[in-house]
Amino acid sequence: MAFYVVQFLTGLASAASLFLVASGLSIIFGVTRIVNFAHGAFYMLGAYVAFTLTERFSGAFGFWGGIVVAALVVAAIGVLVEMVLLRRIYHSPELFQLLATFGLTLMVEDLVVLIWGPDDLVGRRAPGFKGAIDFFGQNIPSYDLFLIVLGPVVLGVLWLLFQRTRWGVLVRAATQDRDMVAALGVNQKWLFTSVFALGVFLAALGGALQIPRDAVNHAMDLRVIVEVFVVVVIGGLGSIIGAFVAAVLVSELNAFGILIFPKISIILVFLVMAVVLIVRPWGLFGKPEAPARRTPGLTVNPWRPLTANERLAAIAVLIVAAALPFVAGNYLLTVGSEIAIFVIFAVSLHFLMSVGGLASFGHAAYFGLGAYGVALLAKMAGLPMIVCLLLGPLLGLVGAAVFGFFAVQLSGVYFAMLTLAFAQIVWSIAFQWVSVTGGDNGILGVWPEKWAASPSHFYWLSLGIAALAVVILRIIVFSPFGFALRATRDSPLRSEAVGINGKRIQWTAFVIAGTVAGLAGALFAYLKGSVFPDNMGISLSVDALVMVLLGGVETVSGAVVGAIVYKALSIWLVSQTDLSKLVLGGFVVLIVVAFPKGIVGTLEAFMHRRRKSSSSASSPLLTSRIESAE
Amino acid sequence: MRGYFVGAGLAIAVAAMATGAMSTQATAQSEIKIGEINSYSLLPAFTEPYRKGWQLAVEEINAAGGINGKKLVVISKDDGGKPADAQTAANELVSSENVAMLTGTFLSNIGLAVSDFANQKKVFFLAAEPLTDAITWSKGNRYTFRLRPSNYMQAAMLVEEAAKLPAKRWATIAPNYEYGQSAVAVFKKLMSEKRPDIQWVDEQWPPQGKIDAGPVVQATAAANPEAILNVTFGADLVKLVREGNTRGLFKGRTVVSFLTGEPEYLDPLKDETPEGWIVTGYPWYSIKTPEHDAFLKAYQSKYNDYPRLGSIVGYQTIKAAAAILAKAGSSDPEKLIAAAEGISMPSPFGEITFRKIDHQSTLGAFTGKTALKDGKGIMVDTAYRKGSDYLPSDAEIEKLRPKD
């Protein structure tokens, strides 16, 4: 019995650490709607700075002072980031801020290794909390007890802050309806900055408090960020109490789950999230989102099919690209094939995101399913390559049909997180089902047949399929189905009123996107000759998001450019420099600032404006109204 | 619009390639190139000393006149910890740098991915660090050789000591991926053969890099084992040790632990190093052989730092590659394979041989016990165990390894 009590307390201590970080994320998201990917980076920075300070200043005062100062220092960095970077892009398309914080995260990962060195750092134990307390023969570390107390204390302080101060009232108001708060004359700039600072402070504090238990290292950020997001979503976005309850729920389920299924930890949080979101679409304590006042896909220049001249230009470019094998060597052709495959992958997500208004955080699942489909067909059934390429993506289709059915019942970030949960579940199946999938050692020897084996042939194959995929998706965009999908995106109520079955339309779009992603995965399996669980991992999903956002989410085919730029750049940088993450991250941040609507989106807006000013007869009234509606 | 960018992107790529290709042609005659791939950005704690190790080897080889008169050049690429990126790098090295062979890799799945690439493209590949048994056995191929003692070998070394323990109730804690799974499986199998009286009372499988150490320690203690097998390393190991120390998990229990004696993993533990663990590792401070002394002196004078196991692996990988290239007198893969099969060479750990039967080198490892000295963890009672003594019989390997 004593054991279960101690296990429960151990779970509570884990929950407290998780809650500190999660609460910060929840506050930031609630008010600013920023999906702060850099939250883990701030957590990690907190730990590193605290390590330096506590090593420098010994004693109880040095330790606790060091922890608090570290959190303040990192919060100051957070303020700087918010003022210099994020303020510029609050009016960018939804999720665009994710791109900026993603770039920051990449940079921080390389910077901490440059500053603090590559070794794992083990900090001091907390003065006064070094030992353990005996509980009926079981030991409870006193530091765990400290954390167990700290969690509710922080919760209480935050509650008082939000309920009893004017600032807290404003924050709560902004969480509910930030447009209305702005309309009432509240200075949003400083409200956002202060909220961001508080969130970052909590993240850094959470990181700093880990040093007596953990090893400070450069991978801490990724370890925590996804889990924290999951906790926030399970609890309900913007709900601090929800985050606390979710942290306890997840930690306790893990603490007791491993007694029965020792391998459960790898997937537990995602299972919990999937179940919670299917049963309660807005998390445990979340409220349904108010209907969006601004339409997310509203563009200054409405979409239109390419003109005849543009079509000719596109064909010309395709011909130039197809001539590459006559001038380039094998390596460049293989890179070209890889880029073409990622174009397919990115346009499939782009279709879902920009046309359907459904941002998926787990799109790699269908890419990976396509790849595994091919690998299993080729290795187990021994089917020829053409058949594998045709049938493999069907696994992506089936996956998308099953998961999409549940996912389209939700919207916004809840939709995104449910897709992430499904992707992680698929990933863990590939990872754990060693007898079929080979586990993380993957499936090897999936090489193309002779007719496609040479780099030039494979390049032509990939390029052809990529062109086909882009054309087909464009045709769908401008078909009646595409219009219905956009109607559902822009106004669910109106589209329902004119008789569009929104959920079915979205589900169909999800299946189309998943199948096209599966096709990309199928090609990828043949390009690499092997398949690994990596092919459906979170980092691949994030890459796809980055490509779409980089190209411009409000465009018809911006993802094509986003994929080419991002993939070519990352391959080139990894090959040329040891600090590829720092440079790539810096580049992403620069693009975010220079092209606040994505590369293609910003250029289109620019050209549109120029065309407008040259033919000044067009109504300036209309333009200004639409821009202010943004 | 879109077309313009496609064109621009391709143009940039072509230009980048062209400059790369030009610089490689100019010096191709007097050089011999080796392509090297490792997870530099993902695992700097291991790969930085590794890089220093191979750079030292390159320097020594060129100072001694290169390979058959040609200067040795190592072109190094980062794989970011992703098998797919490792293949891109391998492809660049082979297709556009025209390297004579590929070396390196750390993670097992990356080692396997590059090994499969080597097999497909008919390129010689000397795997440095991946521990998986599959790379030389179940998924072995004729183009792939491996330097480091495999999972099986390290398990066999530890089992020799572990079987002497009186403990009958064993628990295991291992990271939940192929390395952890196969380490536990081999250890269990070899241990149960020697000691049929042993009971396996608990197993814990925390996700790699994400251990929630408190509950894991508590759950292991609840099974009340007499001895524990640990396979976690890096940050997970630190957390496990800290929680285990505070909660008294290791009190009165013997722990057998893979790799923990390697400075990479032992040094961060500082004064929290648990004493008396039976480990494999690299006690650079207590190896007194002329070969190792020479290496140690050269390393310390070049870098003003002590070597980690990664340094040895990096150093010996390039030394082995150079020895194979010198013996083959050619960069033809078939001749390299012929030269590598059965080749013997010196190493800081004494003479090693690349076996013909499974392309595994006989480089061994040190076993010993952990201890605390001046607030730092060290290995004591160390013994070098030759790799050749801890491999299964040829008949068994014939069964494990696919025919070429």
TrEMBL record, chain A:
Signal peptide: none annotated. It is found in: Cell membrane. One of its GO terms (biological process) is amino acid transport. The chain crosses the membrane at residues 6-27, 34-51, 63-86, 98-117, 145-162, 190-212, 224-249, 256-279, 312-333, 340-361, 381-406, 413-434, 458-485, 505-527, 547-569, 581-600. Its main location: membrane. One of its GO terms (molecular function) is branched-chain amino acid transmembrane transporter activity. Keywords: Amino-acid transport, Cell membrane, Membrane, Transmembrane, Transmembrane helix, Transport. It is a multi-pass membrane protein. One of its GO terms (cellular component) is plasma membrane. The keyword Transport applies. Belongs to the binding-protein-dependent transport system permease family. LivHM subfamily. This is Amino acid/amide ABC transporter membrane protein 1 (HAAT family) /amino acid/amide ABC transporter membrane protein 2 (HAAT family). It comes from Bradyrhizobium macuxiense.
From TrEMBL, chain B:
One of its GO terms (biological process) is amino acid transport. Residues 32-362 form the Leucine-binding protein domain. Pfam families: Peripla_BP_6 (PF13458). Keywords: Amino-acid transport, Signal, Transport. Residues 1-28 form the signal peptide. Belongs to the leucine-binding protein family. This is Amino acid/amide ABC transporter substrate-binding protein (HAAT family). It comes from Bradyrhizobium macuxiense.
